[in-house]
Design brief:
The protein contains eleven helices and no strands. It is mainly α.
Amino acid sequence: MEQYLQALKVYQTFNPSGWVAIYRLLPMWAGIIACAVGLALLLFGGGRLFRVLAGPLGALIGLAWTGVLMAKFGLGMDPRNPTIAALVLMLLGFLFPPAIVFFGVGIPVGLLGGELAGPGDYLVGFVPGLLLGGLVAAVLHRHVSAILSSMVGAWLLVIGALAALHQFGGLVTAMANQPWGLIIAAGLFALAGSVYQIAVRPSPEEAERQEAERQRLKQRKAEQKALQKRWGA
């Protein structure tokens, strides 16, 4: 497990080759599972399935950003802090998924605001960015969750495919040596998944309305059938 946690730290830096190289840690069966999960997230991740995704996504946010935030604010770094933050955010994600949307969007926006404000006024730039970015994302929860799930699903699909095809060493190595090509491919998958979930699939409310209408229609047909049977007797 420690090996995987260390490998995930590469996503704290701008290192496209390192982002792709994580596939080498996955056996073939894990790559196949990653592909299946990635496809499910691309198609359905923004709906009820997002509650399942929000927990692990919260854990990743805690592992990825806790150290960065503590360094930016000059706080003492306890090695246990990222793990504690990951556990708290994972639990919060399962209980209240919009909170993960808030932090998942708000933290990067806050960091950008802090960088624009400069080291002397970092907190002044970070807090408004966190609140504004997070609140907008929380209000647009359905759309943002569809985009986030599509992004995660697309990357899982790409990394999973590399791991599943690892036996074809030459082909996979050639693909891994072109990280930007894989990133662009994942971006296109994420775009397609986002458009499908937002524009094609019905919203949870609309899905519930359609299901209720189907149940009412089914009940009416059953009542008509029972009535015809009674009169025909």
